[in-house]
Amino acid sequence: MKTKEIVQKYGKAHIYMVGMDDQPQPKHIDVIIKNIQHDNIFSGGKRHYEIVKPFLPADAVWIEIKTPINQVLDEYSRLIQQGKVIVTFVSGDPFFFGFASTIRKNLSGVGMKVFPYFNSLQQFAHHEQIAYEHMHAVSVTGRPWHELDRALLECRPLIGVLTDHVHTPDAIARRMMEYHLDRYYTMRIAEHLGHPENEKVYSKYSIKEISEMRFNTPNCVLLIKEPNATLQRPALGIPDTKFVLLDNREKMITKAPIRVIDLSLLALHDSRSFWDIGACTGSVSIEARRQYPHLNIQAFEVREECEELMRMNARKHSAPGIDLHIGDFLDQPIDENTIVDAVFIGGHGGKLKEIIRKVVPHLNSLKGKIVFNAVSEESGKLFREAVEENGLKLQTEMHITVDSNNPITILCATGKHYV
User: Fold this and answer.
1) Which terminus of the chain has fewer CB atoms gathered within 10 Å of its CB, N or C?
2) Backbone angles phi, psi at 62, to 5 degrees
3) Which helix (H) or strand (E) holds 138?
């Protein structure tokens, strides 16, 4: 019987999701257990079990929520198909980066009743007496840095961060220092919020001091913009002289005026994913990251010596979160379901047609764009031929000369069903 049919048949919640903090013997747990219908099946993390076990029936069955989470969901599904009711204990608000969202995503149609509690970031704001209606909440719990990087680049005045054992407060501090983002913020950390004995708040340490400390879990972080800090969005067109160049070769960079036109044609404001192929110094990726913090940027470069070069430039220009791939683009494994909205080809090593052929199956057919700067008639001819051979549309052809440099033809092609 399907989950939806079970819910219709029994007409009741099969999961009761109960939010809580670290208080020992929380009274609301006892009240909830006594006043809901359940089958003595309970679930939660190891820490939650230690807190609620005094309130559980003697014959209680406990399902620990742990990785791999699919096994937990399979067990839930099996019990629900038997018509069983599960009482699940979680931290804070189950719908705030919580397990209730996981249930909704993976077990759609299941009847669920939620009893929310304050989430840890709310509790922390209450503790510090900080108004949090404009807080930008980010979770790096089991997730990459991307959303935290984005919040910092967007200059959010108050950022709340849910951490894990890898993305710890000290790791956050070190990342902010690496990309020169620490100067704008103060950091506060809370451990074991709500626990009368273990709760501890760190509010008087510098980010540098925090980077050298270690913290007990669970913990969370508040990043508060300094009152007098001026976080201005960067101007478009970072001067070429501000980049560390490959072997000090001035021609091994996409010139700032050309770079600005390239980014304009790529329409990155309306994109979610961007590939920079032949990234070299990283100037295009870095410019894109600074201007469009929401972007998922994948940079590809064949030369190994460019790896540290790009990282130096990214740190210098406060551009965290660019995923760099060293090696021939044609040898890079790309999942067949990957879709890219914008592609810049800055270098091709004589394999322009092969690169475009590999890109096309992944290019968003409705709004995908490929931009290429042709420095010779031959490369421009190859690009036009590749566009025709792969069913693309040549949208823009622009001839530009910067100072005494050779003329460049900027070419922009779009996906098959571009609108």
Assistant:
1) C
2) -115, 125
3) strand 136-139
AA identity, residue 81: Q
How is domain 240-414 classified at the CATH fold level? Rossmann fold (3.40.50)
Contact 379, 268 (CB under 8 A): no
The arrangement of secondary structure in 121-225, i.e. its CATH architecture, is 2-Layer Sandwich (3.30)
> Residue 3: pLDDT band by 50, 70, 90 thresholds?
very low
Q: What is the DSSP letter of 283?
A: H
21 close to 123: Cβ distance less than 8 angstroms: yes
How many Å apart are CA 355 and CA 331, to the nearest integer? Answer: 10
Q: How many CB atoms lie within 10 A of CB 317?
A: 19
Q: Look at the alpha carbons of 157, 187, 139, 284 in this order and tell me if their dihedral is positive or negative.
A: positive
Domain with CATH 3.40.1010.10 in the chain: 3-117
Q: Which fold has domain 3-117?
A: Cobalt-precorrin-4 Transmethylase; domain 1 (3.40.1010)
**Residue 248 backbone class (left: φ over 0; alpha: ψ -120 to 50; beta: rest):** left
Decide if 411 contacts 381 (C-beta within 8 A).
no
How high is the pLDDT of residue 160?
A: 98
- Compute CA 332 distance to the chain's CA centroid, rounded to the nearest angstrom: 22
The secondary structure element, H or E, covering residue 299 is: strand 296-301
Closest CA to 269 of 288, 255, 286: 288
Q: Which two tokens mark 34?
A: 């006594």
> What does the DSSP assignment read for 191-205?
ESTT-TTT-EEE-S-
Separation between Cα atoms, residue 399 and residue 128, nearest integer Å: 58
Tens of pLDDT along 83-130?
Answer: 999 999 999 999 999 999 999 999 988 899 999 999 999 999 999 999
Compute the average pLDDT of residues 377-406. Answer: 90
3-state secondary structure of 413: strand
| Comma-separated ranges of CATH 3.40.50.150 domains in the chain | 240-414
Residue range(s) occupied by CATH 3.30.950.10 in the chain: 121-225
Q: What residues are paired with 186 via a beta bridge?
A: 224
